[in-house]
């Protein structure tokens, strides 16, 4: 996991830092002396979560980021924010897409405290399929579909910041990092209009046969200890993401990622039973090894599957 902090009241120093941390940009201030800019970043490879506080009014003109950039405003305002075909202003509680990854944007920060979350656009294709395999999934609107969707995405970002990225040992677990990034991507797609096509085509339904499902299940069994995605599972089965999702729903009444979670839970159960008391292994460490970063959620899933607590299995091993 990577962390970064910045604190300066020098406008030129702030511009240089922001250009290195985001993309090349020009900033300015209408006040004779610029105020203080503070940034705190936590990041794993495909995702970064930044908390920013600017106690002055700052204009910005930014070159394309190459990443999906989300903004959640806590206090103050973002005014006159514009990119191709869009001009808008945001206030406390607003959750917005700053701009498509390939477009420049500009605007003004007005004494604001806000969150910037950035993710690799390729993450969207790991959890959903576009119109065809040759075109990436894109977001097509900068405002959420609904207030409820915006709140859910905001909760997802807070959870990522406070329960995954806040603990370097947790964030550095490959399965946890991959699962958290995929969950964020799925939340983004559920929040903003996009080009993903969720329903299977006739070809997808034709591909969703038992032999294909067996290939997908075998791939999951063989790679459960690795940070795999739905796109990886579909690729191994030689079908689209939609087809593999449809096959799991039709034949098993579940999803590929839910099945993957059950397989990983079974591995965690085996490791708990094999470790035993006095081994030096903890429930938290074993759960994290298999991609479960929330102890309470892991314990709940474990009890539902095995009718006992993880600690009881570890103690009886």
Low-confidence stretches: none
Q: Determine the CATH superfamily of the domain at 2-121.
A: Jelly Rolls
Name the overall outline.
globular
Number of strands: 8
CATH topology term of the domain at 2-121: Jelly Rolls
Integer-rounded radius of gyration: 22 Å
Tell me the CATH architecture of the domain at 2-121.
Sandwich
- pLDDT averaged residue by residue: 92
Largest sheet: 8 strands, antiparallel
Spatial separation of the terminal alpha carbons: 33 Å
Order of helices and strands: EHEEEEEEEHHHHHHHHHHHH
Describe the structure.
Strands 1, 2, 3, 4, 5, 6, 7 and 8 form an 8-stranded antiparallel β-sheet that branches. A hairpin with a 2-residue loop joins strand 3 and strand 4. The chain is of the alpha+beta class and 317 residues long. Among the domains are: 2-121, Jelly Rolls (Sandwich), CATH 2.60.120; 260-316, Arc Repressor Mutant, subunit A (Orthogonal Bundle), CATH 1.10.10.60. The model has no long low-confidence stretch (mean pLDDT 92). The protein contains 13 helices and 8 strands.
